[in-house]
């Protein structure tokens, strides 16, 4: 808990079960924009950075705020874990640049643009199937979850029949604080045996074994895909065995969960703001702009983190070398100094320089073009078909202090 503010506890996964505590973040931005936030043992606590400008300053200055000592979640890693679990997310330049280069072309605007027609075709097929029955159905299971995983199977060129398995592994790893999705809930059961796996998740060994099988296949018969790029990097000595595994797991998770949560959050926002939905249906050319507002609103990754490499100052606070610094995208995206009326969902908002993919700097989301394209196409295909849509039961959120995700969203939907 933050002593200065009494009840605020950003580290407790239960704080997010009923939705992001935006009122807490608003108070922090105004009263304690950079504040020391204690944490339960074994963690030492962190600086909570909640304003847009401060978050940007941290991410741009990677020499002062390093990713090498952990970037994902609040877990504090010892040297052994850091060595074993490191992916490009936990790596500073120049090594980071080398890692990123392995597949950056494939994720560029041009690289993903070639898939546009294919994505549209898949989006149509997903919608054809999901929209057929008129009874209530779970929007997450039938729609949001489908498109990102099918695309992942395509750029990995793995069989579409593996999609449910990949989804389940991804859920168990990233939702490692939700007993509904994972048995190894990190703050409730002993996960010491899995301490060297990403997200302390036992299923990581299954993911690694899957990655090995994929590599073996490509060594026999090369493919033109992302995994091939990783295999080549391994054969050139750029990736060792562990780095190959961690890269594979990173792409599998990052490319799947986050886009799913964006699509679900977008549909929920449009149901809650029917006038915005009507505007997009009347003027579909606005959908690209609307996607940016959906991304700002969704903020599926709530924070990333850095570690100070030297004593420094941020908004008048003295940060010591070795301190953990947590940058809250979900708060910066509602910073009233940047976004007028930040609590208003406005599909015409422009400019909309949200930090949902990070503010820039070396770690800016590799999959941003892809996530934007998938979300845009999904809504371009869905909205013209909708005669009406309404909630048909409570929205259930993932128990997590890291991912802002919807796990179930029953809807009743009528088509034209
Ligand atoms: C709406 C969907 C997505 C969101 C909200 C999201 C968010 C983020 C964020 C916040 C970061 C860290 C930025 C920083 O540290 O400044 C990141 C990095 C990354 N994202 Fe995404 N992401 C999404 C989709 C994707 C997709 C589709 C992929 C594709 C595989 C992907 C792959 C990655 C990778 C590999 C990194 C690490 C980049 C690096 O360390 O250089 N992401 N993402």
Would you list the SSEs in sequence order as H and E? HEEHEHHHHEHHHHHHHHHEEEEHHEEEE
Biggest sheet overview: 5 strands, mixed
Number of helices: 17
Rg over CA atoms, rounded to whole Å, is 21 Å
Strands of the widest sheet, in order across it, are 1-2-8-5-3
Head-to-tail CA distance between termini = 50 Å
Detailed description of the structure:
With 416 residues, the chain is an alpha+beta fold. Helices cover 43% and strands 11% of the residues. The protein is built from 17 helices and twelve strands. The strands form four sheets. It has a five-stranded mixed beta sheet with strand order 1-2-8-5-3. It has a three-stranded antiparallel beta sheet with strand order 4-12-9. Helix 6 (116-131) packs antiparallel against helix 8 and helix 13 (257-272) crosses helix 15. The longest helix has 17 residues, at 204-220. The model has no long low-confidence stretch (mean pLDDT 92). The site of protoporphyrin IX containing FE (HEM) has 27 residues, from helix 12, helix 13 and helix 17.
């Amino acid at each position: 808990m933050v002593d200065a503010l009494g009840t605020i506890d950003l580290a407790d996964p239960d704080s997010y079960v009923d939705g992001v505590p935006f009122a807490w973040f608003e108070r922090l931005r105004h009263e304690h924009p950079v504040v020391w936030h204690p944490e339960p043992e074994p963690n030492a606590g962190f600086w909570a950075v909640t304003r847009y400008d401060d978050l940007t300053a941290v991410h741009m200055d990677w020499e002062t705020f390093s990713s090498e000592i952990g970037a994902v979640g609040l877990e504090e890693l010892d040297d052994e874990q850091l060595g074993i679990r490191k992916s490009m997310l936990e790596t500073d330049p120049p090594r980071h640049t080398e890692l990123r280069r392995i597949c950056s072309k494939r994720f560029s605007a041009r690289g993903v643009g070639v898939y546009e027609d294919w994505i549209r075709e898949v989006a149509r097929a997903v919608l054809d199937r999901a929209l057929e029955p008129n009874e209530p159905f779970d929007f997450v299971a039938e729609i949001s979850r489908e498109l990102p995983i099918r695309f992942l199977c395509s750029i990995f060129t793995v069989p579409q029949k593996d999609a449910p398995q990949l989804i389940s592994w991804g859920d168990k790893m990233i939702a490692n604080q939700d007993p509904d999705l994972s048995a190894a809930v990190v703050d409730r059961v002993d996960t010491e045996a899995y301490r060297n796996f990403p997200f302390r998740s036992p299923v990581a060994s299954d993911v690694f074994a899957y990655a090995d099988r994929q590599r073996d296949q490509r060594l026999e018969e090369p493919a033109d895909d992302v995994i091939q790029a990783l295999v080549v990097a391994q054969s050139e000595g750029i990736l060792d065995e562990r780095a190959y595994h961690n890269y594979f797991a990173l792409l599998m998770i990052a490319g799947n969960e986050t886009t799913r949560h964006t699509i679900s959050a977008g549909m929920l926002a449009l149901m809650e703001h029917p006038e915005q939905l009507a505007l997009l249906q009347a003027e579909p050319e606005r959908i690209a702009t609307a996607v940016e507002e959906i991304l700002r609103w969704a903020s599926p990754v709530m924070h990333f983190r850095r570690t100070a490499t030297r004593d420094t100052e941020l908004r008048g606070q003295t940060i010591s070398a070795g301190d953990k610094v947590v940058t809250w995208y979900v708060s910066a995206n509602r910073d009233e100094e940047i976004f007028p009326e930040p609590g208003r969902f406005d599909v015409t908002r422009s400019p909309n320089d949200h930090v949902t993919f990070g503010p820039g700097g070396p770690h800016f989301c590799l999959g941003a073009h892809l996530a934007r394209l998938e979300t845009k196409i999904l809504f371009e295909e869905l909205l013209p078909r909708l005669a009406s849509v309404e909630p048909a039961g409570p929205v259930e959120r993932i128990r997590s202090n890291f991912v802002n995700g919807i796990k179930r969203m029953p809807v009743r939907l009528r088509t034209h």
